[in-house]
Task: structure prediction
Amino acid sequence: MRIGLLTEGGYPYVSGDARLWCDRLVRGLGQHEFDIYALSRTERQEDEGWIQLPSQVSRVRTAPLWTAEDDGVVHGRRARRRFAEAYGELAAAVCAGPETPGATEPSAGAADSSGVEADRFASALYALAELARDEGGLVGALRSEGAVRALERACRAPGALRTARAARVPDLLAVAGHIERALRPLSLDWYEDDALGSVDLCHAAAGGAAALPGLLTRHFFGVPLLVTEYGVQLRAHYLSSATVTEAPAVRALLAAFHGALAAEVYGAATLITPGNAHARRWQERCGADRAKLRTVYPGMEAERFAEVGEGAEGSRCADPDTLVWVGRIEPAKDLISLLHSFAEVRKEEPKTRLRIIGAPADGPDGATYLAHCKALAAQLFPDEAEGVHAVGDNPVSFEEIGGPEVPSLAEAYASGALVVLSSVVEGFPISLVEAMFCGRATVSTDVGAVVEVIGGTGLVVPPRNPRALAEACVALLRDPERRERLGAAARARALELFTVEQNIAAFHGIYLEIVSHAPVRRLVVDNAGEPLPFGVPAEAHLPGGWTEARLMAAGRPRWGDGAPVRATATVPAGEGA
Result:
């Protein structure tokens, strides 16, 4: 079958989110044909180019989210009226959204009102999409003064959000600008018979902007939509908005907009595949139907950790007195609590050392946080020396993968007897899974999907509790047999649940299930014009002209009448940007 893989800020670019997962999925499902529709986040990401693509990728089409030049489309009076009506309805649905999404249990009347507003939002969204398809792009219209005025009228209307009523002109401009960026996929030329209209299934690798082209393809052509979220986009927006110094009206309106978009994505999707139960609970709270949810754990390469995990020569030389932390250094990882916890560990086990292995997060904040952690480590643990003529050494070290002491990720986990995670915010804890592949016992904080991943093969303590973290570490440091049992159980669990093979097998089955239940959009007939039953089985979309059956449109919109058009914009196998 032909899969339209929709990405945002990742595959097929060299850098970005979910790049490795998408690449493994495409390479693992070589029996299918993939068309990649990618939205880029930055100019730098585009300049870095693509990774080498496998032969099953037939075409790649890209569009930027970081910029949108005026397309020069000038709408006539009728088109301007259509835009004003549709955008006004969209703004009214956003401004009438819940004051605090998910904060309280709604009453029956509130639930009915929420359903009405959701339908109102969806109708307005698709009306804008149809206008863009008929008249051209909406870049200029979404930036126009008319859009800001429509937003202002919606904020002043009876029943609008309390915080939105106080919105000033700068607030309205900020919200209108954000909505314009979020709706840029509406103006793309991807929604044609020879583009997304020709795929059998749209698979969005994330929610939000990545899923928006899938929504429109479902609306225009009836193509089923599969949405995968390893990190819930709406949750990420809530967390990021809490740290941004924006006016309350801006935060409330943007939260309502993203909440309405997420609800429409979840409602329109045929199936939704969260990466863990933590993401699944968020999706249910944000409006996803439980019957549509299928948990599919992200697949990771177990082979790179096999030597350490199987206890080959060299992997047993781990220092039994060393704790290891691996990850990206940022405030959410709460290394401050880890350092205070390690001070408590040292009181009980003076020989213990702590290796913090990882690079700071991008931007100045990551470097600042790393410097703060190093300063705290120097303050808590003055360099120690065995005698008056010896050079002191700090028991805490900060290192990066690729250095002389830690040449590879597997050796980072092999360097200690115990792996520690101290995060206060976490989605799917990749570092814990890697430690499990390495057969290492773990001590971690109870955040995100940690308990689900560990499954009883490690110790879990409350976040922001250095004393509890220290007691758990001391307990395992003093009991090597227990560490070995937990490590062996952790590796067995990781091999069962978190490998690339299980991930690919799960999506292969899901693809076939969705397509087998999807309505037939194309009728296959023989040369005499008689219909061929089962003419388009789920796996009959193979390259080559080995069949003489021809396709005839049936039950499609009038703009799709006629013979299908074969895609011409192909990407040769292995060719990058």
